[in-house]
Amino acid sequence: MAPATYFLLVSFLALVTSQAIASDPSPLQDFCVDDIHSPDMHALTLMKVSGFVCKDPMAVNADDFFKAANLDKPSDTMKSKVGSNVMQFPGLNTLGISLARIDYAPLGQNSPHTHPRATEIITVLEGTFHVRFVTSNTDNGNKLFAKVLNKGDVFVFPQGVIHFQFNPIRDKPVVAIAALSSQNPGAITIANAVFGSKPPISGDVLAKAFQVQKGTIDWLQAQFRENNHY
Amino acid sequence: MAPATYFLLVSFLALVTSQAIASDPSPLQDFCVDDIHSPDMHALTLMKVSGFVCKDPMAVNADDFFKAANLDKPSDTMKSKVGSNVMQFPGLNTLGISLARIDYAPLGQNSPHTHPRATEIITVLEGTFHVRFVTSNTDNGNKLFAKVLNKGDVFVFPQGVIHFQFNPIRDKPVVAIAALSSQNPGAITIANAVFGSKPPISGDVLAKAFQVQKGTIDWLQAQFRENNHY
Amino acid sequence: MAPATYFLLVSFLALVTSQAIASDPSPLQDFCVDDIHSPDMHALTLMKVSGFVCKDPMAVNADDFFKAANLDKPSDTMKSKVGSNVMQFPGLNTLGISLARIDYAPLGQNSPHTHPRATEIITVLEGTFHVRFVTSNTDNGNKLFAKVLNKGDVFVFPQGVIHFQFNPIRDKPVVAIAALSSQNPGAITIANAVFGSKPPISGDVLAKAFQVQKGTIDWLQAQFRENNHY
Amino acid sequence: MAPATYFLLVSFLALVTSQAIASDPSPLQDFCVDDIHSPDMHALTLMKVSGFVCKDPMAVNADDFFKAANLDKPSDTMKSKVGSNVMQFPGLNTLGISLARIDYAPLGQNSPHTHPRATEIITVLEGTFHVRFVTSNTDNGNKLFAKVLNKGDVFVFPQGVIHFQFNPIRDKPVVAIAALSSQNPGAITIANAVFGSKPPISGDVLAKAFQVQKGTIDWLQAQFRENNHY
Amino acid sequence: MAPATYFLLVSFLALVTSQAIASDPSPLQDFCVDDIHSPDMHALTLMKVSGFVCKDPMAVNADDFFKAANLDKPSDTMKSKVGSNVMQFPGLNTLGISLARIDYAPLGQNSPHTHPRATEIITVLEGTFHVRFVTSNTDNGNKLFAKVLNKGDVFVFPQGVIHFQFNPIRDKPVVAIAALSSQNPGAITIANAVFGSKPPISGDVLAKAFQVQKGTIDWLQAQFRENNHY
Amino acid sequence: MAPATYFLLVSFLALVTSQAIASDPSPLQDFCVDDIHSPDMHALTLMKVSGFVCKDPMAVNADDFFKAANLDKPSDTMKSKVGSNVMQFPGLNTLGISLARIDYAPLGQNSPHTHPRATEIITVLEGTFHVRFVTSNTDNGNKLFAKVLNKGDVFVFPQGVIHFQFNPIRDKPVVAIAALSSQNPGAITIANAVFGSKPPISGDVLAKAFQVQKGTIDWLQAQFRENNHY
């Protein structure tokens, strides 16, 4: 890739940021569709970032604001699947919102995690499941909020708090729709970030933090090295 | 109502505004739950504004972030029903998002309107329906974008543009979930605002704007005076 | 145009957006002047977007912040003329404001429209004219606010509401100055967007929305097809 | 004043701030009119702050968005008069813009100052005058930009930079309209803040800063003590 | 406490939020000092929130912007001490920044945590210590960044990422200054939130998340129940 | 430099702006490191702007978030030295904060100036020094706030106000750490901007503004022409 092109591409990374920094949902145009079909996007993908290059407005059409998905075909189970953030849905670029369809297998769960850039509001389409979040540090912090949701119920997870959901039923899946207040909410899965980081966090530090023997930490980290799946 | 109380209440109106102005989704606390169960809220409701008084954090519980809704019981048809904006869902206060469940009767529609404060992302739970939006004025503006959505499909309406949806099928309803990027998106239904305003807009102005005889305008406005339903 | 150049240009479209998203009026430099005199701008113009490429700060001079206009020479009548948004005034780029000089011929009007991205504050230089706006949907919504303005009077139209102005006098023009709280406020002229969209909105939908016979809608749309002027 | 009332009032000061902090121009309602006619406002005025208490929306009318001003009657000369910031125009509350009509007597000037919270865009209604601004510190900073404006000309002063205007003509006044991108732009008149502060700045510090003898500074400060006019 | 007063106070909680939501650092006045010395603040403190009631500007003095701290007297060791967020420093209210002085005893550490509302920039005054942060989930996420800092060195932790610091030296303390880009950054200590929440998180969920036997989780949670110190 | 490259570079200037405009501290990625080591950066430096090109995330490492500085080696005296704004510290890009280490020689001072884009919070590491700021124009404006700071003391300067610091001691230096709430706060040194601008401000204007004879102004400006040091 020629230097000129390279810098052109990396300038898009800056764009990603500058667009994201601005949480104000009124762009200077009606829309700025991410041009994912352009050849250079492949290079960007290799760079692990979506390009956020605006398509020529004259070439934009309704399909840019559309994403087909079959609710009858469950997505992979055990973990959430964000179905339409800006990485997968070019029309969301600069519009400050995203949507996910989530499937939970029987006894499946979405482990404790945070979304650093969005509040999440979730509604249940099928089944019964449990939602939880933990507040931040204060004299009364680290308080667990818990609720059971049935079909049609709605719940909101405030931005930044650690939260999780699980399907306690042995023989029925759960289907839910989650909307997030950012075109790219981000996610930090706690266990993976703390015990599965590359390279691993010092066992001495984690032993102190979790108030256990270093041996326990070593073993926890070993689990993640073996079967690490994000 | 004593002056003191009155000013206390109106100060809440200012709060509503100041909270809304801030589109940044990171509040200074984990949450600020709207205290709708307080006696003063009744007065506020009479004043046609939700209070946005934060509940004592120690009194907040999971139910504040929960809204029960039965997807099997359709909401009233022919028009959209925003099921959980901050007016109806105290936990959404300051969190920058809201969610609506929408039902369309056979041949029902959600007439052309705008949301001045939010982008809308919609997904279909049942049925088939048509979505449209029109871009703003430019040399190539007022362009209509159209798409047919089936179960599971997702579509996004950029903030501020005129948009609408309708169910073209004679014998099947449509159920959809819409998420909006504001705790209180607002709505302006074009026909009602232009032909049903109180008092009515001058017929001469509308005749020029719509390029018709004043008589046609008079008649259009008469329709709205008779069967005005918001 | 070589692919490299093309992507360079479209990256500017993204810039437009990212700059707009940010409504905060403090840029990282004193200014970022739109470089409209650069050759590539022609390509951008063909793409129907102003480039928002910052001029080399060393090349910026006072003329970049200046726009000549002759108040004695009226602009075209019957509709407003936004005299200095960022498309026409490079120095406004990133500065969060624009200014318009508006002329109304005798009996001229600025038809019902919205500015999705700005509040408008207007003052009368010559003549007498009428201003109106309609509030959004609520139990008490779609309320018409009306005022007559004389020379020197000031009026404000809140962001996003439908508003219009007209000169009721048969033999005197009106001259006004309007300031808007965005470098590119945008505009949606209601009648044109609803009855003049390309392609047209389904007559059945509009008939229901406006509570008239489909025939009336067909005829309204025909007017716009014939003498459409934006 | 009872403590309860006192705290109610001071809570308005916080409101002022919170509303101002948010530069996003889309409030949660169509408007939040400052209730300046309420009895408690007198107390607030004594506290040198406008209240920003929202009027009951049902009581709001077109006059709240209107300000009468007679362009034929010049305002006091020699210095600018901000004719409609939120302190004087309740309808501007939360709407992110303000407007000023400025009169310059023959040889009058608006001395070097900054607006910490707004960009200013100015247009000339009558006469000829000179505009200037100075850029901030950089290797090429503190550069003076200068322009002569005639009737109808427009000029923009970027937010935060030191700027000034003057009427060089011995026998003709200047009338201008200035719009600012904040409901309360604020102003810091350099000479008054540096040489007229209460208490005065140490003469030693100013002598070093301005590279003159302390005696010169003492004399400069004496001038301001005598005929201090803001 | 009378209902009226109660609602007055809770309205301050909303203020806290509205001020925080707005990350724009330009208030409508020069400052809005938190009035912590007012009687009602005691009630607010009981409610575990600082009041953010603006002091009468006429009563504000230099001490409101000042906080005495003796760098020779170390703060308590083993964990960080945020020395001047808005809870402890009234003048910071609405100004968008806070500062902490941090002491690490020999072998002391600040365990893995996130600041949901701020980037942290840290500089070392005395000693040598280690800083780490882990990136969020992506194909290449959960990457550990590590650095050793000596006296005078500066390091930045991007907002929202899990990070920690420790003093590896057996016989020398570390003193550091951390600045955060919010008047109230917030903190979530991972181990405490996950294993020390009240009530505890289901052992089954954590066993799956951390890929260990439920017995290990039970034991981890027991540690926290015994010697829980925030 | 080829046109293509030139426009690529200037697009970075726009990026600078768009990133700055957005004061919201949550980017769309964990970070966007300024790629200062790229060849094109030399050209950008000549253009007196840092590039804000994001490095390929895969190439980012801990050194990008690190800045070495030796607190034992004082920086140049008499004026402040901002040690780590984004121009000098690529990792700060988009993160909304910067840090400065400031040294004051005996009797040294940091002359009256403003930071248009940031609040400043300062803490003393060594010595005793004086801090001052002056409020903006109001009936009670241009008020001087003064405080003496000793080792460990903290003081905050609200955004946009004129402020300064000086070391009154004849034989001891002062060392301080200042954090600012922007990645690029900007600075306007009053005396230099008013009396040292290029070209100079008209003596007549300054004579009126400072209420002195034009001769005094001429002499003040002459001082700056001779020994101008920024």
TrEMBL record, chains A, B, C, D, E, F:
- Give UniProt keywords alphabetically: Apoplast, Disulfide bond, Manganese, Metal-binding, Secreted, Signal
Cupin type-1 domain sequence ranges: 69-218
**Alphabetized InterPro entries for the sequence:** Cupin_1 (IPR006045), Germin (IPR001929), Germin_Mn-BS (IPR019780), RmlC-like_jellyroll (IPR014710), RmlC_Cupin_sf (IPR011051)
For the ligand (oxalate), the binding residues are: 110, 115, 120
Q: Name one Pfam family in it.
A: Cupin_1
Q: Which domain of life is it from?
A: Eukaryota
**Which Cys pairs does UniProt list as disulfide-bonded?**
32-54
Cellular compartment(s): Secreted, Extracellular space, Apoplast
Binding sites annotated in the UniProt record for Mn(2+): 113, 115, 120, 163
Q: Extract the signal peptide range.
A: 1-18
Membrane-crossing segments per the record: none
The Gene Ontology CC terms held by the record are: apoplast
Q: What would you give as a GO molecular function for this chain, any one? A: manganese ion binding
What family is it from?
Answer: Belongs to the germin family.
- The identity of this protein, by name, is Germin-like protein
